[in-house]
Amino acid sequence: xxxxxxxxxxxxxxxxxxxxxxxxxxxxxxxxxxxxxxxxxxxxxxxxxxxxxxxxxxxxxxxxxxxxxxxxxxxxxxxxxxxxxxxxxxxxxxxxxxxxxxxxxxxxxxxxxxxxxxxxxxxxxxxxxxxxxxxxxxxxxxxxxxxxxxxxxxxxxxxxxxxxxxxxxxxxxxxxxxxxxxxxxxxxxxxxxxxxxxxxxxxxxxxxxxxxxxxxxxxxxxxxxxxxxxxxxxxxxxxxxxxxxxxxxxxxxxxxxxxxxxxxxxxxxxxxxxxxxxxxxxxxxxxxxxxxxxxxxxxxxxxxxxxxxxxxxxxxxxxxxxxxxxxxxxxxxxxxxxxxxxxxxxxxxxxxxxxxxxxxxxxxxxxxxxxxxxxxxxxxxxxxxxxxxxxxxxxxxxxxxxxxxxxxxxxxxxxxxxxxxxxxxxxxxxxxxxxxxxxxxxxxxxxxxxxxxxxxxxxxxxxxxxxxxxxxxxxxxxxxxxxxxxxxxxxxxxxxxxxxxxxxxxxxxxxxxxxxxxxxxxxxxxxxxxxxxxxxxxxxxxxxxxxxxxxxxxxxxxxxxxxxxxxxxxxxxxxxxxxxxxxxxxxxxxxxxxxxxxxxxxxxxxxxxxxxxxxxxxxxxxxxxxxxxxxxxxxxxxxxxxxxxxxxxxxxxxxxxxxxxxxxxxxxxxxxxxxxxxxxxxxxxxxxxxxxxxxxxxxxxxxxxxxxxxxxxxxxxxxxxxxxxxxxxxxxxxxxxxxxxxxxxxxxxxxxxxxxxxxxxxxxxxxxxxxxx
Length: 773
Fold this sequence. Notes:
Blueprint: E1 2-3, H1 6-9, E2 20-21, E3 28-29, H2 31-44, H3 46-56, H4 83-92, E4 96-98, H5 100-105, H6 108-111, H7 116-120, E5 124-125, E6 129-131, E7 139-140, H8 143-155, E8 163-167, H9 173-186, H10 200-209, H11 219-224, E9 227-231, H12 235-238, H13 241-251, E10 255-259, H14 265-268, E11 269-271, H15 276-279, E12 284-285, E13 289-291, H16 298-314, H17 322-328, E14 329-330, H18 332-339, H19 344-355, H20 359-370, E15 375-379, H21 381-384, H22 389-402, E16 412-415, H23 422-427, H24 436-446, H25 458-466, E17 472-476, H26 480-483, H27 487-494, E18 499-504, E19 517-522, E20 530-532, E21 535-537, E22 539-542, E23 547-551, H28 565-576, H29 590-600, H30 607-611, E24 617-618, H31 622-626, E25 636-637, E26 653-658, E27 663-664, E28 667-668, E29 678-679, E30 684-687, H32 689-695, E31 702-707, E32 715-724, E33 731-735, E34 760-766
Parallel strand pairs: 1-4, 3-11, 4-5, 8-17, 9-10, 9-15, 10-13, 14-25, 15-16, 17-18, 18-19, 26-33, 30-32
Antiparallel strand pairs: 2-29, 6-7, 6-19, 11-12, 20-21, 22-23, 23-24, 26-34, 27-28, 30-33, 31-32, 31-34
Helix pairs in contact: 2-3, 2-4, 8-28, 9-28, 10-22, 16-19, 16-20, 16-22, 25-27
């Protein structure tokens, strides 16, 4: 094991305040992606650790990539990963580890001044570390002492609801199941997770309309579709392997419409690095029609297309699937009446204001729709992080129901999940509002009565911490402080907690913004070999399309001080709760955990045997499999959603937070955004040149971005370089987590309570020169 010594760990932390800007790229992947992958692996892991890891990513007997949740096909390439997957694995497989010497050399106050990028570059956490109340430095503790500290605080709670248990989407099915079991045996449903901040809006809308809060399509369906609409998503950076699937679809004759406020290189041309042509610069043009929509205009766009379809139906044109509507849906008449009520001369001016699109383009989209028998709609955060996100996704469902595009090959809903097992965690019961059916099954299997009162989601957990109602905050993975909205409010709330505990693989900002006391517990990563008593263990994950498969770590852990997440939970369980009614000591055996999952969660029959099959198995999905809709009405529900769009005062812009190409969620791999032409820095704000001229923002000038919200609190992101960029008019974009400080905690989506990170009203003020961490 190679430790990071003090002299090496004090490497330069780039200021990130002087980014260089060139023209954005017009294609994605190709040779630059390959070279970037090789460089990242070489720098972090070296050949001895890096090469075996790369050859095992997403292989049937290897490990699931810790990045995105995009599925693998049955046939695998030798290099079954994308550039960002390589970066994620390279960081995880690093040959550097953090020991007590590093923490002794760096007080927490100093670490809190470092960037998230710098913190993540320091290596893998190697042993439990404890920050005592009033202490300036983390100090090493034994595993026994660390878990006893947590157990003492949990046993001392006056109510189990004084604890909050957060989950990252990287956590395996086995760990997630044990984690929720521990929280519920303790007596709380306070289980916020990263879904609350991303696809909660999707789950809310799909559960109401279709009865299942997941996507309904398979990887094979993409090749069978006549038309794919990709809305509010940038696959080239966030889900790069999706580009290969879209390329195959194009070659089979599928047309693609891209709906997005920014032109993104990946959806323009994809140069597949898996073939010689792609490496030589020959690519596939993916997008047939680009609709550059204003932020938050998607509900209005889909409403407009639906209105055109209804009007064509009224003229006697055969554009609707009348048999499907009559047999399988509810609410069509009310939906139709509402959408057709407004006169054209009032409706269309409002559509153009909300979307920034001319009627002619909407009619062109509609013509492509009526010329397509099988349609899939894919979306991500661009649709889910607005006040009106749930109505938007419900309107997407309306659009698909009109032509029967649910429950048949080549058609359906495709919410593209982010983190690699975020969907599986929810399947395993990580949810603050569990169903009675799930709790009944859990209680019957383990012989206790789980709590029924709903718990805190992410936003409400922050509020509870801010009110001083949380004595223990426990995070299974993730980087809560950096991932959540309203950074200063969240950090203040975290500091009001008695004990904060983070099960982590690498150092991040949540470890340096702590409660009165703090623990860091080093966990095995997806790439690490998981041994207990000399026997190798493996876990399972669920991808974005409902397929469950095994993940086997392949690398020797850097330290004996790292433990699996399941072991940490089970050891804590027996210390806090004893061995009755849950026999925690038995759950160190992952097969035993899977037996319990089989008994509790529908669709996991014969779990252990099916998970051992090389490609795993697909969970049942009633709308997809049987055109059966387990909703309140027993049918697929049409809904009335209006045509709301955000209002932006004069002199202001609507800002979206987004990722650079050198990051995944809050993990920053580097300071470049190759596809957007930005290098050596992240403090940039992308503004349409015409908007910039009207606001007096010169290209290359520096400005403070100031958020506006009704509470009157100042939210300021200081010293950002203005980049004139072809965004939609009235819109701007900047990277998170740096601009999470601008997202108000109380600005959330209706129903789902997801923060509105794509709908931030901002103004620009003279550069103050101050830079936060």
